């Protein structure tokens, strides 16, 4: 069996997939990758099903040893990855490409994210961890799934299922020339690392939108908020002009992207590990097309919001899914 050895785990590296679905009635949060788009693309680049288990890396990258080599692909935030072969040669490797990591080589995923917040690292064959409640992802709060229900630690041995055939020369780094369309990245209009000014996050009105005072509704769309350091896989916490919430609210169903307003008035955008219900009023919901941008917003990043209609939100998502299908077909043809 092929395994990956964790020499250093990074800040927070967990095994994730596309989540557990169908158990909300039992109080089970879907969880899974925060940036599902980058997760899907990484898997497709190495020939995996889009929902295969892969690594989610947060801010500080891990150092991974591949005793028998493997095809990998890293997407999402750039972490300046390099491969160090057994004879000491160092080769910088790009994100968004399939890469052969030679036998005995070490993949060093960088000491910090150059832009963004999270990277997805897929390994051909997928990570072979147990299926639990329909998913393989790590639920950190409940302590199950993934690798022993926790973030990775130095010394962990991660099994890989059905590794893909190596290249003819398995002792050298190989980078395949694949091109990922901008629409399939979290930054379709240009990366912040290139100086691009990110557009506002598109949102739909939440169920309690009309219950908020007029001043709060206007402030939501006229304020530039800042992501705070206490953000995590449960939610992206923002700091900015306080939004006065309604005086009363009930505990209601929430989904990833729901923008809740607690008594402090500082919004919280729920992420993958959100609870299945929440008692804070829901002023808005991030359109699915922009959820990857929320997932990639690091502490200190500015965020602003703009309203979008349901029809437009659905159309934008359909356009992206169509691009993803065409991309998938192109990869299958190249194989």
Could you list some keywords that capture this structure?
335 residues; alpha+beta; Cyclophilin; eight-stranded mixed beta sheet; six-stranded antiparallel beta sheet
- Quick check: average pLDDT? 93
Gap between N and C termini: 24 Å
What order do the SSEs take from the amino end to the carboxyl end, as H and E?
A: EEHEEEEEEEEEEEHEEEEEEEHEEH
Structural class by sheet pairing and helices: alpha+beta
Please tally the β strands and state the result.
22
- How many structural domains are formed by the residues? 2
Oligomeric grouping of the chains: single chain
Percent helix? 10-25%
Shape: globular
Low-confidence stretches: none
* Widest beta sheet: strand line-up: 21-14-15-18-17-20-13-22
Q: Helix count?
A: 4
**What characterizes the major β-sheet?**
8 strands, mixed
Share in β-strands: 25-35%
Radius of gyration: 20 Å
What is the topological layout?
Layout: E1 2-8, E2 12-16, H1 36-45, E3 54-58, E4 63-66, E5 70-78, E6 82-84, E7 90-92, E8 99-101, E9 105-108, E10 115-123, E11 157-160, E12 174-175, E13 201-205, H2 214-222, E14 225-227, E15 235-239, E16 252-253, E17 258-260, E18 268-270, E19 277-278, E20 282-286, H3 291-295, E21 302-303, E22 305-307, H4 310-334
What does this structure look like?
An eight-stranded mixed β-sheet has the order 21-14-15-18-17-20-13-22. A six-stranded antiparallel β-sheet has the order 7-6-9-4-1-11, with no helix packed on it. A six-stranded antiparallel β-sheet has the order 2-3-10-5-8-12. The two termini are 24 Å apart. Strand 6 (82-84) and strand 7 (90-92) form a beta hairpin. The mean pLDDT is 93. Helices cover 15% and strands 27% of the residues. It has two domains: 2-180, no CATH class; 198-319, Cyclophilin (Beta Barrel). It is globular and about 65 Å long. It has helices at 36-45, 214-222, 291-295, 310-334; strands at residues 2-8, 12-16, 54-58, 63-66, 70-78, 82-84, 90-92, 99-101, 105-108, 115-123, 157-160, 174-175, 201-205, 225-227, 235-239, 252-253, 258-260, 268-270, 277-278, 282-286, 302-303, 305-307. With 335 residues, it is an alpha+beta fold.
